[in-house]
Amino acid sequence: MHPGSKILIDDFLFVTFINCNIQGCEKMWKGIYVNQTSVNLAFKVNNSIQDAEFGIKVYETSSGIKIGRLTVNNVAFLNNYTGLSMEFDKPTIARFYSVPQNNLFKSNRSLLAPYPGQPNYGEIAFAGIKLDDISWFNLHPPSNLNLIFGTKNVFDSIQNGILAKKTNLMVGNALFTKMLGTSYNHNIQLPKGKGIFCDSSYFADVADITVNSADVGVLFERSSLAEVTVKGSQITATTGVRLISSTDASYTIDSNRINSKPNCIYGLNSIGRGQLFIRNNELTSSSPALIDAFGLNGGCIHFNQDPLVVKGAINQNQISPGTNVGGIVLNGVNGSKFSVQSNSIDGNQNLMGIGLYGTSGIRLYENTINTNTLFDEDRPSMGIFLESSPNNLFCCNYINGYQRSIWSNFVNMDTKLRTSHISNAQYGLWLEQGSYISPQKWTNNRWSQGTFSGLGAYNQNSNSNSVNMSKFTVQTNTWPLMPSNGNAAGVDAWVEKDLNTINNCYSDVVCNFESTTKIWGRRQ
């Protein structure tokens, strides 16, 4: 094709492409422009479109007669700035005969030079598919015939796989590999390195995709009130799933395998009064390049949230934080109907199991939190860390191997520590000076088998009034016993004996949620 030329398909035509290779010469060409209103267009067998500004650009006229249908299958989009473009000025239905399948969106060399008058887009393809104001777009072809006929859509060595703005979509049975580049502020920068990026969308269902390398595997931004699901996918990216500025949205992130550096799942002002369910995922993070003042850089699951009510659960996830990465980090979450339940956090030399910052009202129970971090006084590891996080309930958590099993900083009043099993630590329970958690009576916390090289319980508050604000009452006549040593004020000044303490979670009225509390669920 000559520089700047285009193929226009318009006005009630029936067109089929079979075994066609359309490519540019010395410079880019504009692409194949298709009137969706009136054209029946089919790409069926072994076609390729190369070197275009838009491989296929679909537009729609204002005509009331809408008889057009598209079939886009088995097309290799090579070295185009954008492979398939469907960008409209008002909500429009994408009309396809069948779900697009077995298409390849790829750069295997630099883009050709721009045609006269074309912006210089650089050297790498920008996007495989770009959507704007699509009422409904389905890119989830059936996977049961994939091995025989090939239905998977592949995005390879381009800047972004799918960019969807004000578009409701389904994506599945797709491979995203080598999404190139990095960008953060999409108000002033074009996105780069994104597998799937939904901006201002109201519905997205992502399932059964594979992301091999990306800045962000799946990104949702400004999608307030959205209904979002990411399920059954394998994602390797700097950030696996990123949720930004999408308040009052409802998210379900279920049964995925995510490997990140450092945040597997990250949210910023992304829930508000919505719902969040993160469950049954395998999350692994590797060590990030930068760390903060605590020696940390986020968490496998990390949420920074405006202090609004959120409901849902983070439950039954297998979490493996890397060095300098926390397991679950919640900052500014008010979760009176939110639980963190039955997660296994077991990372090699991770510095924090669960961290709460300015977070209140949530329930953490039946979590197993392990590490094998070497002791370091400059950067002590923390099993559960509380900072300015009052009125949280902790039940039946097992904490092993951290330098400080439970660490309280600043004021965390109305904390309920119940039936914690603490073992193999330097300090089992650590309260900073000026930190209070309210009296803990008959809490059945256990300083279990293993060793405490420092103190079982350490309270830096020294006067009796301050100590009494966090006083413990524990059972001492049977194993496991109360901590055998305490801070300089004396263990008896802080931890008192009581022979009537209950012996397990399910005898504890507070911790027995089956009989006292309804766990929030979600319609499927």
Explain this structure to me?
- This protein has 524 residues and is mainly β.
- The chain is 2% helix and 47% strand.
Features:
524 residues, mainly beta, 3 helices, 46 strands, 2% helix, elongated, disordered C terminus
Write the layout of secondary structure elements.
Blueprint (H helix, E strand, L loop, with lengths): L5 E4 L4 E5 L2 E2 L6 E7 L4 E6 L1 E4 L1 E8 L9 E4 L2 E4 L3 E12 L10 E3 L20 E13 L6 H4 L3 E6 L1 E6 L3 E11 L14 E6 L3 E9 L4 E6 L5 E5 L2 E3 L2 E6 L5 E5 L2 E4 L4 E4 L6 E5 L2 E4 L13 E6 L4 E7 L2 E3 L5 E6 L2 E8 L2 E4 L4 E6 L5 E3 L2 E4 L10 E6 L5 E3 L2 E3 L3 E6 L6 E3 L2 E3 L1 E7 L14 E2 L4 E8 L4 H5 L3 E3 L20 E3 L15 H4 L8
Parallel strand pairs: 1-4, 2-5, 3-6, 4-7, 5-8, 6-9, 7-10, 9-11, 10-12, 11-13, 12-14, 12-15, 13-15, 14-16, 15-17, 16-18, 17-19, 17-20, 18-21, 19-22, 20-23, 21-24, 22-25, 23-26, 24-27, 25-28, 26-29, 27-30, 28-31, 29-32, 30-33, 31-34, 32-35, 33-36, 34-37, 35-38, 36-39, 37-40, 38-41, 39-42, ...
